[in-house]
Amino acid sequence: MSPAPLSVAIATTEGWPYMRAVLDSFRVDAERLGVEIVVGDGSGKPEPPEGALPAGTIWLRSEANDVFRQLADAMRRCSAPIVATTEDHCTVRPGWCEAII
């Protein structure tokens, strides 16, 4: 398997299912391109159910109560040569991942 061309780091204090909208906004592109998604979750809520996340998603539980620390944790876990960030309350347009790559 080829390494991911892009990692997307996202921090959340809201957890699942709040994160569904942002992940669904680029799920098709991320899966098609092999994008790695890393979520730093400090919500304390249960993790998403099996199969709910796009392929290539890493869900990190964080004890940090600071969204910037959660984002830093997620960014440290990213493995692609390019790292993008977005926020848990944002959605992106189709083609966003490809435009960054």
Q: Report mean pLDDT, rounded to a whole number.
A: 95
**Largest sheet, order of strands side by side?**
3-2-1-4
CATH topology heading? Rossmann fold
The SS-based structural class is: alpha/beta
> Looking at the structure, what is the overall shape?
globular
Tell me roughly what share of residues is in helical segments: 25-40%
- Mind telling me the C-alpha Rg? 12 Å
Total of helices: 3
- Give the class-level CATH name: Alpha Beta
Can you name the CATH architecture?
Answer: 3-Layer(aba) Sandwich
Describe the protein's architecture and organization.
With 101 residues, the protein is an alpha/beta fold. The protein has a single domain (7-100), classed as 3-Layer(aba) Sandwich (Rossmann fold), CATH 3.40.50. The chain is 30% helix and 22% strand. It has 3 helices and 4 strands; from the N terminus they run E-H-E-E-H-E-H. The protein has helices spanning 20-33, 67-77, 96-100; strands at 7-12, 36-41, 57-61, 83-87. Strands 3-2-1-4 form a 4-stranded parallel β-sheet. The longest helix is centred in the N-terminal third of the chain and has 14 residues, at 20-33. 31% of the residues are buried.
